[in-house]
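Hypothesis: this fold can be encoded by more than one sequence.
Test: take the structure tokens below, design a sequence, compare later.
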């Protein structure tokens, strides 16, 4: 009698028709998510008369270069994009650096009250920037950081979420690895630089993508802490193009600015997509 075929572990059989439903669901999801982006792009290529016509055309028009050039010069998009890039990079790098070091201290150093320190950090999730925005602004104003990159970034760089994620990953590091590093004469910083950081690449990349988008999309804090047009970020700059009175917005120009503002975050996601997915589904987590 022939031996039964071995069953592969970690896989569950699906019925033949399941793949069709899954692909159909994926196609519908892509359409639902992608249609607003496509519609915004179409609006950005039309004239104001085409935008207000009924029924609305879903085919790109011929005013793309005109609209993008007008809004680029009107809003000084180069300055806005540069400011947003500086803020997003500073916030993401600062959050990762501080969270990495704090999680390293909590996991690998045995000191009295380390669990209390961790929970105090974790409790700060209950106090996001909008909740403490008045007191934070008072501190920033006292330090003279209004209308500066320091005022835009430093109040945003602490992250309890990133600290928690790094802590959970560091807890999976075997004690034998730590003991081997001590036998080889590696100190704490050498252990962090040569062992932990190379093994944390996927986590760092995944957090960088999330934190970059978080910093890029900041609106309330940059609106409050900046007064000059030179320090505006792209989100507040685009919001300023929508009039608050009875005058109708020039939606074609607003959508053109939105399309340009989407490019840097999309580029970051595309470049780090493989690392981002690997960091989210890593088996150690």
């Amino acid at each position: 009698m022939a031996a039964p075929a071995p069953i592969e572990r970690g896989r569950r059989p699906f019925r033949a028709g399941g793949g069709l439903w899954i692909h159909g669901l994926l196609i519908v999801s892509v359409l639902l998510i992608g249609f607003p982006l496509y519609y915004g792009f179409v609006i950005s290529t039309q004239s104001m008369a085409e935008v207000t016509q009924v029924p609305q055309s879903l085919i790109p028009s011929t005013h793309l270069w005109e609209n993008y050039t007008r809004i680029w010069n009107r809003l000084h998009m180069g300055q806005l994009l540069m400011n947003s890039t500086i803020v997003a990079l500073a916030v993401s790098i600062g959050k990762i650096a501080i969270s990495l070091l704090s999680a390293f201290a909590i996991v690998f150093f045995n000191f009295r009250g380390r669990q209390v320190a961790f929970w105090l950090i974790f409790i700060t999730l209950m106090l996001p920037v909008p909740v403490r925005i008045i007191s934070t602004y008072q501190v920033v104003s006292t330090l003279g950081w209004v209308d500066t990159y320091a005022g835009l970034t430093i109040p945003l760089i602490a992250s309890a979420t990133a600290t928690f994620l790094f802590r959970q990953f560091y807890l999976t590091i075997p004690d034998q690895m730590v003991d081997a590093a001590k036998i080889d004469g590696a100190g704490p910083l050498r252990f962090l630089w040569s062992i932990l950081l190379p093994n944390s690449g996927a986590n760092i990349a995944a957090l960088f993508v999330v934190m970059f988008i978080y910093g890029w999309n900041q609106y309330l804090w940059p609106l409050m802490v900046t007064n000059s047009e030179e320090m505006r970020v792209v989100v507040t700059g685009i919001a300023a193009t929508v009039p608050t009175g009875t005058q109708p917005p020039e939606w074609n120009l607003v959508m053109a600015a939105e399309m340009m503002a989407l490019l840097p975050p999309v580029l970051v996601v595309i470049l780090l997509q493989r690392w981002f997915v690997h960091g989210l589904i890593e088996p150690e987590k």
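Residues 218 and 235 are 7 Å apart (CA to CA). Residues 76-281 form a domain with the MetI-like fold fold (CATH 1.10.3720.10).
Hypothesis status: open.
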